Amino acid sequence: MHSSSMKKTLYQQIDFPVLQNRVYDTAEEAISCPKGNIEIVEDKSTGLIYNVAFCPELMNYDSNYDNEQGISHIFQALGEIEWVVGPLRAGRFPG
Fold it and tell me: 13 is in which domain, residue-wise?
């Protein structure tokens, strides 16, 4: 159990890059990127699961942050199922 209360640690990772989609100019920049810790906990009193070690001050979404998903074959395939999810978004449920 997590020492601060009724929290159970589910997963921990030390010195993990804080941004997965940040593009760096050199390998050295990438290796020395900002890192934070991950401690995923389950709060037994509320049922919430979250990263208790999250530090928002480490997050820096600048012009080198790239979340482009268009080249992903999985992301592209999502467009192919629009005929299924489109009616659901419009509130037209089957049955």
Answer: 7-89
Q: Is residue 64 part of a domain?
A: yes
Contacting residues for 93 by C-beta, under 8 A, at least 6 apart: 87
Total domains in the fold of the chain:
1
3-state SS assignment for residue 44: coil
Predicted confidence (pLDDT) per residue in 49-76, tens digit = 999 999 999 988 888 887 776 677 777 7
* Residue 94 forms part of a structural domain: no
Decide if pLDDT at 30 tops 90. Answer: yes
How many Å apart are CA 52 and CA 47, to the nearest integer? 14
Give bridge partners of residue 22 from the DSSP assignment: 65
Q: Is the pTM of the predicted complex or chain greater than 0.90?
A: no
